Amino acid sequence: MFFNFTEILSVTMVLFAVIDILGSIPIILSLREKVGHIQSEKASVVAFLIMVVFLFAGNSILKLLGVDLNSFAVAGSIVIFFLALEMILGLHLFKSDSPNTASIVPIAFPIVAGAGTLTSLLSLRAEYAIENILVAILINIALVYFVLKNTARLGKLLGPGGIGILRKVFGIVLLAIAVKLFATNIKELF
Fold it and tell me: Residue 1 domain-assigned?
């Protein structure tokens, strides 16, 4: 097994930007008010399992549907592009339902392991080694767990302005990554 620090860092940043757990602090605080306690451990483990299963089985599902990885990566880059626009411009292009419970739905899915994350995983798989993606998933799940455990403190520390700045910065990073994924994989299609 060969670990590449640069790849791990790149994938970690992509997943961190897509998951946007810091930008989700206001949502998590609101959920805590509505449903009470959120099981941070359960949400983190379920999100991890969803991500790993999709990382390995997602390609088989695509083959079953007759879609190659490069085509999916191009489509994924477009989804990531729109997620980045949401973050940068403060738009709400993707809609989500209000939950009655919060640990698994919507924390584990779709806030952490949502469509953007799953699309990103398969898109990243076209460009990065699996072991580096797995390490990046573990790092992000550890960050998710930390944020879930400390949501109230982080919300007070960052304030609405700090959270807004983080969303914009990671939105721009995500936008650049979407363009790179698109450019790299569109060449492979032609």
Answer: no
